[in-house]
Amino acid sequence: MKMWMARMYPTYEPNTLLVSNGLSSMGFAVPGAIAAKLARPDRRVLAATGDGAFLMNSQELETAVRENIPITVLIWDDSAYGLIEWKMDLDMGTSSHVKFGNPDFVKYAESFGARGYRVGSADELLPTLRKALADDAVSVITVPVDYSHNLRLTDKLGELTDPF
């Protein structure tokens, strides 16, 4: 998810796409979105995150609900650590120990008092995003993704290399 957003998401103003890149810390999206909303309460804030990273700090939904900090969280759900799997496939031609099970993210969001949405097809994404971003509430959208396109993205953008 991070690579797709960093490479393909268009930005038109500075500081409108925040990516925790340094050590690629997972779990940044939800607390980062809360901080962004506190810093810019006049702006709509979307946290785009993979399912594995979301689960690392997902309890912060409760903080956002309790403190009435309306953010929207978009979870890219592939039941795996997608970037790690992509890197393993590139480096070794195979991957291991990157798959896991997920909760029902809609029910999970609702258990904290947030709104939950599930997108079933690509044509549902934009209307669901618009609705969630228009809500004056904490909203979670879960979207199934197929990361089999990752290697095609690598081919299109050139070989990914390690700086070390």
Structural summary, described in words:
This protein is of the alpha/beta class. Helix content is 43%, strand content 13%. It contains eight helices and four strands. The chain has helices at residues 2-8, 29-39, 51-57, 60-66, 82-92, 105-111, 122-134, 150-157, and strands at residues 46-50, 72-77, 115-118, 139-144. The chain has a four-stranded parallel sheet with strand order 1-2-4-3, sandwiched between helices. It starts with a helix and ends in a 7-residue tail after the last helix. The mean pLDDT is 86.
Q: In terms of topology, how is this protein built?
A:
Blueprint lengths: L1 H7 L20 H11 L6 E5 H7 L2 H7 L5 E6 L4 H11 L12 H7 L3 E4 L3 H13 L4 E6 L5 H8 L7
Parallel strand pairs: 1-2, 2-4, 3-4
Number of helices: 8
| Adjacency order of strands in the biggest sheet | 1-2-4-3
Stretches with pLDDT under 50, minimum 5 residues: none
Separation of the first and last Cα atoms: 23 Å
How would you sum up the major sheet? 4 strands, parallel
Strand tally: 4
Q: What fraction, in percent, of the residue positions are helical?
A: 40-55%
Beta-strand proportion: 5-15%
What are the secondary-structure elements, in order, as H or E?
HHEHHEHHEHEH
Assign the structural class, choosing from mainly alpha, mainly beta, alpha/beta, alpha+beta, or little secondary structure.
alpha/beta
Rounded Rg: 16 Å
Mean pLDDT over the residues: 86
